[in-house]
Amino acid sequence: MKKIKFFSFFALAVLMMTTSCVSKKQLLACQDENKQLSKEYQQAREGLSAANARVYALEQQLKDCQSSKAELQASLNSSLSNAGQYNVNIEKLVDQINESNQYIRHLQQVKSKSDSLNLVLTNNLTKSLSKEELKEVDVQVMKGVVYISLADNMLYKSGSYEINDRAAETLSKIAKIIQDYPDYDVIVEGNTDDVPISKTNIRNNWDLSALRASSVVQCLQNQYGIAPKRMTAGGRGEYNPIADNGTEVGRQRNRRTQIIITPQLSEFLELIGKDVPAGSK
Fold first, then answer.
1. What is the pTM of this model?
2. Which of 41, 148, 225, 256 is the most interior residue, by most CB within 10 Å?
């Protein structure tokens, strides 16, 4: 009987120990699971907060887009309402461009006519000059006018503004060309080198260049009958060189008188103004 009680007590003790071990393991497992769930819960809350912030930002973007859409729609409506006026302005612009092109073509025709006259004038003058004269007379067309450049040693007495006898024949040929083109004006321009003048009655190179130009103008008027109202005399002194004044050859080239034959300004303006559309002026 005692053995039976002992075994019963032993079995009960073993059972209680086993049960106690199982419960402790379950508790530890539950605690670990609880920690994991808490961690996941916290992560879920953080994710939800970020998602809410993203939703709010998207809602703001949506509002901005809707506002921009409304502004664009209003601008489009305004543009459509003004489309008729824009078309009118474009048509006016096209008309102005066409008139401008017509005016440009007209000016090109005027320039072509002027160039042709200048070419004929230049050829006629060159043919009339001898080979010896052409060594001291340079004839060319620049910027729509005819330039006749004469060396000073051919025109004037040394150190003077008086025209010498040798120049008479050359000036007579130039005068003949000027007479043949009554619609052209004449500008006579004196030029010197940079060596100071040492004459008591001439202050400087400005004076000398102007006096020489004036002598040519008066010669063309008094000896060859060129109308004085067609002519202008001017001096540029040493300030319009075409060569280096540091050499004798350069100074000789700079000492020159230019006779410039150019269309009369009034005639030219009348020519370019003829039959020009009003909108092109």
1. 0.58
2. 256
